[in-house]
């Protein structure tokens, strides 16, 4: 990559209350939690600045204009038209995952989750005393996807009641195809399961794949699905706290709203302002971001060529899923921390021997991290 990009700029996030940068001592390069070391889009900063200049921060509500901006986004990106009445505004997506399990299933129900997966999808059933069936994500060719035979085995069980999907999948970087989603939907319909579809990474597609919201498949899917989305990953505004659920089925919506009443606060004013600006004016920034991330992903692939690290097809997210099992490292997190890189250990997602590397950062930072990782691995041989 020869052309300069503003995404190359190094931003010192230490002392900024950053989870990512506050976790480790200063000599460590943090490449773990899913936010990016980039400035928010200028349109977001301008909108926030204006609102801060207003200087009034009273109680607030999600305005119609925000919902319209999201609807417009859904229409232009996924040819999907969720109705305004089906939106629920939330301070984050994780609380929605836990709420869905608690509100839409009963104690001891079986919840099915393709795994390894972002840990809140498995934590939500575990914390609510539900049974958890982890369905293996397997390599099909060079691409991770759910094993449909195991999925059906689980769906068949009498106490199975809900399927938690992560699409695009974190970690594993898979974007489910229409055929895969249709096969999953056929099982959900046959065995009468609700589907909670965490689609937070849906606007971070780095390949020629297309994101298809599960609820957009057909009317039956719409009626049994809770869709969870947010601008937080796409526009790097996770610290502001805003996500939304789309629930077409009025009974499910009522149950979800009853369970959250008085417990989940409304999203804060600045989060709403940022979201609206991002969805209405952030397209050019977003396109540049995807280009930068694609190049970073290619760079990782170039650096690991000739090593024993395996990386399957990477379709979406800025989180590389690296298979290091050939190195037989006992505790990858501690091993790489010693080398000066803070990675996410695959074990936390349910896959020992893997690591997840966040490449949403300036290229020079990624280069340094890759140097340290490869030197540490070299020292093993
Ligand atoms: C799949 C997935 N869902 C949810 C979240 C977090 O959502 P929120 O910050 O809105 O609670 C993440 C963050 O990494 C994620 O990867």
TrEMBL record:
Keyword Metal-binding among record annotations: no
Keyword field contains Membrane: no
Domain spans labelled Aminotransferase class I/classII large: 28-373
Gene3D superfamilies xrefs: Aspartate Aminotransferase, domain 1 (3.90.1150.10), Type I PLP-dependent aspartate aminotransferase-like (Major domain) (3.40.640.10)
Superkingdom of origin organism: Bacteria
One GO molecular-function entry: pyridoxal phosphate binding
Keywords of this entry: Lyase, Pyridoxal phosphate
EC number from the UniProt entry: 4.4.1.13
Cofactor: pyridoxal 5'-phosphate
Family of this protein: Belongs to the class-II pyridoxal-phosphate-dependent aminotransferase family. MalY/PatB cystathionine beta-lyase subfamily.
PANTHER family assigned: PROTEIN MALY
Protein name: cysteine-S-conjugate beta-lyase
Lineage: Bacteria, Pseudomonadati, Pseudomonadota, Gammaproteobacteria, Oceanospirillales
Gene: patB
């Amino acid at each position: 990559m020869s052309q300069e990009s503003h995404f190359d700029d190094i931003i010192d996030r230490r002392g900024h209350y950053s989870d990512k940068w506050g976790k480790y001592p200063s000599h460590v390069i943090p490449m773990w939690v899913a936010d990016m070391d980039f400035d928010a889009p200028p349109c977001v900063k301008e909108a926030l600045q204006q609102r801060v200049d207003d200087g009034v921060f009273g109680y607030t509500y999600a305005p119609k204009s925000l919902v319209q901006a999201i609807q417009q986004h859904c229409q232009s990106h996924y040819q999907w038209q969720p109705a305004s009445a089906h939106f629920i505004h939330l301070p984050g997506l994780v609380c929605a995952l836990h709420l869905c399990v608690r509100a839409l299933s009963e104690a001891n129900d079986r919840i099915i989750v393709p795994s390894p997966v972002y840990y809140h999808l498995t934590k939500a059933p575990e914390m609510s005393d539900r049974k958890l069936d982890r369905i293996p994500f397997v390599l099909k060719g060079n691409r991770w996807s759910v094993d449909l035979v195991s999925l059906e085995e689980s769906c068949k069980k009498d106490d199975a009641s809900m399927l938690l999907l992560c699409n695009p999948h974190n970690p594993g970087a898979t974007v489910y195809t229409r055929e895969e989603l249709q096969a999953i939907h056929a099982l959900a319909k046959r065995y009468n399961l609700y589907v909670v579809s965490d689609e937070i990474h849906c606007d971070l597609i780095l390949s020629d794949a297309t994101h298809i919201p599960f609820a957009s498949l057909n009317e039956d899917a719409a009626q049994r699905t809770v869709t969870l989305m947010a601008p937080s990953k796409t526009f790097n505004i996770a610290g502001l706290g805003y996500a939304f659920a789309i629930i077409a089925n009025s009974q499910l919506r009522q149950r979800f709203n009853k369970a959250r009443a008085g417990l989940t606060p409304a999203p804060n004013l600045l989060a709403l302002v940022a979201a609206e600006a991002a969805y209405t004016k952030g397209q050019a920034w977003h396109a540049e971001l995807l280009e930068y991330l694609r190049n970073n992903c290619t760079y990782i692939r170039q650096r690991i060529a000739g090593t024993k690290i395996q990386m399957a097809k990477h379709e979406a997210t800025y989180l590389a899923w690296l298979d290091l099992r050939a190195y037989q490292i006992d505790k990858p997190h501690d091993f790489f921390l010693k080398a000066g890189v803070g990675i996410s250990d695959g074990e936390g997602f349910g896959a020992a021997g893997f690591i997840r590397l966040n490449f949403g950062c300036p290229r020079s930072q990624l280069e340094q991290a890759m140097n340290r990782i490869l030197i540490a691995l070299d020292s093993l041989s």
